[in-house]
Amino acid sequence: MFTLDGRRALVTGGNSGIGFSIAMSLTRAGASTVIIGRNNKKNIDAANLLQKINPLCSAEKFDLSDVSKIQTFYSRLIKKYGLFDILINCAGATVRKRADMIGIDEWNNVININLTSAFILSSEWAKSLISNNRPGSCIMIISLMSEAARPTTSAYGASKAGLKQLVKSLAVDWAKFNIRVNGIGPGYIKTDFTEPLYKNRDFSRWVVSRTPLGRWGNPDDIGPAAVFLCCDDAKFITGQTLFIDGGWLASF
C-alpha cells in the first residue's frame, strides 16, 4: 500500500521545510524525485540526502517568480528527465505587512510565486501527460489562510485562496484524462518560512493554545499525506483539500 515505485516526481520549493519533507516521503515511497529551488547550496544539500535513498533524485535551480520563463524551463526538464507522474507545487512567498502598506511589486511577487507559477507549471505538466496519454497526480500546498485571516496576511491569503479554488478547477478540467489534482493545507508548521512567527513567544503560545492537539506541526507531519494522495490507493480522490492543522480550523 501507498507505494510510488517507478514514479517520477517534481517538487517546487523542495530544498527545505515542507517541500523537502514531501520530497523525502515521495522518495522513500519509491519515487525518483527532482526538486526545484532558488538557493543552489540548499538544492545540493537536499539532493544529496535524497540520493542516499534513490540515486536518480536530483535538483534544479530556478526562480519561479519569473513566470515568463516557466514554459521553457519545464520543456528543458522533461527533455532531461522524461515525463513527471507527480507534481507538487510547494514554492511559496509572503510579505508580512498591513494591506495598505504593501507595494504593488510586493503583491505581484507573492501572487506570481504562490499562484501564477503553480498554474503555469501545472498546465505545462498536464499538457505533457495528456499528449502522451499518461495519468498523473498534482498537489497544491495551500494554507490555513485560504480559510481564515489574521493581520498582515492579505497577499498571502489571497494567493492561497486562489490556489484552493484552482485545485477544484483543474481537477474538473483534467479528470477525463485521469489526472488528479488535490490540495494539502498545512497548519502552523515549524520551518524557516515561519521562523519569525514561532520565535515570537506570544504568537507561538497563541498557536499552541488555539490548536486542539496543542503543538506546532513539523514538516514530517505533511509528507505522508502527500504520498497517500499521489498513490493508486487514492485514485478516486480529486478536487479535495486536506488540512493538516492539528484541529486548528475545527476549533473556535
TrEMBL record:
The keyword Transmembrane does not apply. SUPFAM superfamilies: NAD(P)-binding Rossmann-fold domains. Keywords: Oxidoreductase. InterPro entries: NAD(P)-bd_dom_sf, Sc_DH/Rdtase_CS, SDR_fam. This is Gluconate 5-dehydrogenase. Belongs to the short-chain dehydrogenases/reductases (SDR) family. Its EC number is 1.1.1.69. It comes from the Bacteria. Pfam families: adh_short_C2. One of its GO terms (molecular function) is gluconate 5-dehydrogenase activity.
